[in-house]
Amino acid sequence: MVCMQLNPSFLHHPAKHQKKMMQQALYELFGSICFDVMFALTVPMSLWWLAGTLSLICIVLIIIERGCEAVWVPPFLTFALCGTCASDMMWLATNAGFGVLGAQIERWRIAPEPEQPKTSPMENIRAKLTGFWLDMCIFTGVWFAGNLSFSYDISFVRSVVGFLLMVSLLDLGLSLWHHVLHLPCMYTYHKVHHSVRITQPWTNEVEHPVEALGNATVKYGSLVLVSNCVQLSPNVAFAYFMFSTWYGVMVHSGYNLPPFDWISQTPALWFIITPQQHQAHHLNGAKKLGAITSIWDSLFQRIISMSIPKQPCLQPLAASSRLGKTWPVESLREISDDQLRELVQAVRTHGMIVIPNQSWSLNEQEKFTSRLGELTATVVGQAPEYFEVHPRIVRLSNFRADGTWKGPNYQGAEVWHQDGDYMRMSERHILTVLCAEQIPTSGGGTGFVDLVAAAAALPASLRAKAEGLRCFSSARRNAEYMKRDFTAEDAERFPDQWTPVLHRHPRDGRELLLMGSELSVLQDQKQPDPETTKALFQHVLSPRWMYFHQYKPGDVIIWDNLQTLHKALPFINDGSDSRLLWRAQARVTEAFPW
C-alpha cells in the first residue's frame, strides 16, 4: 500500500517553501508508487534497474536544486547542472545495466555478439566527461532561448502536454534528419554510424560530428520551440532529457528488452520503433527510418511515392505446365539426405520449384546450398554491394544494406537471361536457391521460360536453321549492361563464349535451347543471323513456356539454370517499397550426382 506522510509544519512555511516541500513529497510518492507496482508484478530485472535509475536521478536532481538554491546559484546554471546530470546519468546507468544484468537478459539479445573488439566502457565515459563543459554550454543556451523558470506553477496536465509535444517534435525532427542522412549526397556523414552492423551497448553515440550536430539541434530545438509556446517547468525538461537519452541507448543496445518485447507482441503498437527493428535497419537495410515511431517515416514515404510517376507492373501470364510446382517441406534446414534427393529430382523434373513458408539465416541458406553442389556466384564485373552482408550470398534489392534507397533508376536483371551465360559450358550447370525476405506491394516477382518445352516444340523449319547456329555471349557486354566496371582480370577469367544453340543437358541428355540472354547474338560460322535470332526468341518467349512467380515472404525457389531463362519483373520503385531477395548458387559437378 502506498502511503505519503506530510510534516504538519509544511502548512506554516511560506508559499515558495511549501512548493519545494510539495515537490519533494511528489518525488517520494512517485518512487513509492513505482516500487509498489513493480513489487506487485513479476517483472524482468531490466525494469527494476530502470526504476532504480529513475529514483536515483530524481534524488540527485533534488540535491542539486536544493544545494544551488542554498548558495544562490543562478537559475540557468542550476538548470545546466541538472540537465547534464539527468542526461549523462541516464546514459551511463542504462549502458552499464546491460553489463551488470548479463545472463539475466541474454534471452532478449537480438543478434549474436559481434566478433570485433568491444568498445571499452571507460573510453566512452572519459569521452562523455570530456564533453561535460560543452553540455553545460548547450543547456545554458537552451535556458536562455527557451521559456523555462523554476518559479512557474505548472499544472500536471500542462506538464504532460508539454512533454508529449516535445517527444512528438523530437520524433518528427529525427525521422526527417534520418531521411536526409540516407540521401546519397549526405550518406558519407551517416556511414560512421552504420559502421556498427550489430548494435550493442555503448555504441549509440558512434556518429560523425555532422550527424551529432543535427541530432542535437533537433533534440534541444524541440524543447526551445515547445517552451516558447507552452510554459514549462525545468522538471518537465529533465524528464524529456532522460526519456530521449534512454530511448536512444535502448534502440541501439542489441537487446529487445521489455517493454519493447511486449510492444513487438502487441499489434496495436505497430508504429513504435523497437530495438529489433532498428537492428534490422543496421544489419540489412530494412526500411524503418523512423526515430521513435514509424508514423512520420510512413508519411515521408507516401509523399515521395506521390512525387514519382507510377510505372505499370506486368501482370502474370498463364503458367507453364511444368515450371513452378510446389514442393512442401516444413523446413529446408532440417531435411534428410533422402529428402534432398527427392528435392533435386523435383528440380530436374520441373525445372523450377517453389518451397513456401521457410525461415532461415544466411548461414543456413549457404549450408543448404552447399549440399546441392559446389558454391559459386554468377557475378561479373565489380559488384561489391552484392556481398555487403554475406561473402557467398548475393543480396538483391532496390535498397542498400545500410538502408539507403538506390533511386528510381535502380536496374535489376530485367531482360530474359541465363545466369553465367558468359561462363564456360562446364561451369554453367548451376542450381540457384533464391529466398524472398521483403516484397513490394505490387510486382517485383520473377518470370521463367521453359527451354526444354520450347526445344521440344521447335518447328522443323526453325530447327533446321537453329542447328548450325551458335550463341555468342560476352561477359564484358553483360557488365556494361549492369553498369559495372570490367577489369583485365575479369576479361581473363571470362573469355567470350560461343555455344551451340541446340544443346543437350549434361545430366539427362534432354535437348535444350541455349539462348544466353536477350543481349546474346546468334550466328553461324560466318556471320550473325539476326532474322533467325529474332524468330527463335519469338518462339522461346511465347507465353506457352512461361511461368511468373509472385513472391510471398518466406518463399524459396530453386531452379536449374540450364533448363530456364528468367528475369526480374518490374515494380513501382519509388522508395516506399523494398524488394529484398537472397541468392545462393551451387555448381553441379561429378561429386554431386543427381
Task: Tally the beta strands.
Answer: 15
The global form is: elongated
- What is the helix tally? 19
Query: What's the main sheet like?
Result: 7 strands, mixed
Uncertain runs are: 1-13, 34-42, 310-319
- Name the beta content range: 5-15%
Question: Averaged pLDDT, please?
Answer: 81
What is the percent of helical residues? 40-55%
Q: How widely separated are the two ends?
A: 73 Å
Radius of gyration: 31 Å
> Structural class of the helix and strand makeup?
alpha+beta
General description of the model:
This protein has 594 residues and is α+β, with helices and mostly antiparallel strands. The protein is built from 19 helices and 15 strands. β1, α13 and β2 form a beta-alpha-beta unit.
Short overview:
With 594 residues, the chain is α+β, with helices and mostly antiparallel strands. The chain has helices spanning 15-40, 45-70, 75-101, 121-130, 132-145, 156-181, 187-194, 209-227, 234-251, 260-264, 275-284, 295-307, 337-350, 362-370, 451-456, 460-466, 475-481, 488-493, 530-540; strands at residues 325-326, 352-355, 374-376, 394-397, 430-438, 446-450, 470-473, 497-500, 502-504, 511-513, 521-523, 546-549, 556-560, 564-568, 580-587. The longest helix has 27 residues, at 75-101.
Write the layout of secondary structure elements.
Blueprint: H1 15-40, H2 45-70, H3 75-101, H4 121-130, H5 132-145, H6 156-181, H7 187-194, H8 209-227, H9 234-251, H10 260-264, H11 275-284, H12 295-307, E1 325-326, H13 337-350, E2 352-355, H14 362-370, E3 374-376, E4 394-397, E5 430-438, E6 446-450, H15 451-456, H16 460-466, E7 470-473, H17 475-481, H18 488-493, E8 497-500, E9 502-504, E10 511-513, E11 521-523, H19 530-540, E12 546-549, E13 556-560, E14 564-568, E15 580-587
Parallel strand pairs: 1-2
Antiparallel strand pairs: 2-13, 3-15, 4-15, 5-13, 5-15, 6-12, 6-14, 7-8, 7-11, 9-10
InterPro entries: Fatty_acid_hydroxylase (IPR006694), TauD-like_sf (IPR042098), TauD/TfdA-like (IPR003819), TfdA_dioxygenase (IPR051178)
Protein name: TauD/TfdA-like domain-containing protein
Transmembrane segments: 25-41, 47-64, 76-105, 125-144, 156-177
